[in-house]
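Sample pair:
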Amino acid sequence: MSKRGSFTLPFGAIVGQDDLKLGLLLNVVNPRIGGLLIRGVKGTGKSTAVYALADILPPVEVVADCPFRCSFQDPANRCESCRSRFEKAEDVPKKESKMEVINLPLSITEDRLIGSIDVQRILKDGEKALQPGLLAQANQNILYVDEINLLPDHVTDDLLDVTAMGWNTIEREGFSITHPTRFVFVGSMNPEEGELRPQILDRFPLSSLIKTVNDEEARVQIIKNNLLFEKDPIGFKNRFGDTAEKLKKKIANAQALLPKVEVREEIYHIAASICAKLKVDGQRPDIVITKTACAAAALDNRTLVKEGDLLKSAFLTLSHRTREGGLEPPPVEKEIEDAFEESSRKWGSLWKEKVGAQVSIPKGEGIPEPGKETKVKKNS
């Protein structure tokens, strides 16, 4: 578990790096997005931003006596034991647990990551002597790997498996225990120290390329913030207490609003069209773009996804994606923007022509009630 939350620069004091902060916040609003890869040269605040996130993370309800932090609310995020207890209508205890940033060290062993079972104790005492691993601790939390490009291959392979399936299985000599691993996967790296394997690169739903801040005034503010924080960490954090509370409320509001967010048919087509034009590999990017756009709308206190949400999401989703089976490099910002504009023109026009008499596409933030028919307006 990260112990740095109280000794890290406040999230609200981070200057610039808007894409990074947005990518982190969208994952907090909807943890099912799945994670963020942060790329950038050393000294650009990658780790600082991740650890600073701990102060504004919302609480989650977990089964109080479960070693795997199983969800009290979500039946799909429960181990076999917890599922059985709920099915039998037992009195299952719950507790509110704040999300945390769980740090995965590069030197971690496989047993420490996955967990272990003491087989001798099982045979002797007839009980499951379980030692949960870091993956159990990470469930419903944020799992952070700094310098992820330097992670040993065998650990990388284990992470690929659990992020793909959402489950971790601890197996020892015929005994096995399976538990959920629904965490937000955040990794950071300096590209100058080596690239990621394509297999793990594609597992990150979103990515953000961090650049050195070159604006003079912004750099001055960064200097001041760091010196003031070093001088009086608690006092400096308290200065940003109101900002942190506002962010917490904004996140909580967005999480409550997210299930109500609606996506117009044209948005699905634009998302698919962008990915097809750019020839990105697989269908996962199409889904991630749309899912992220919904979180962006909720974070902006809206229940209708706009094309602008889709463009923001496309930048975060596609800038690290392999194309043509890895034969082409990831698309640059201009390519993504051009594909978006072309797709938006095509599908916005066709959608308006096709359903203009039946479906309302309001310009504002409201959503038409089912069955209500109004004139179509171009969404700005």
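The CA atoms of residues 42 and 270 lie 36 Å apart.
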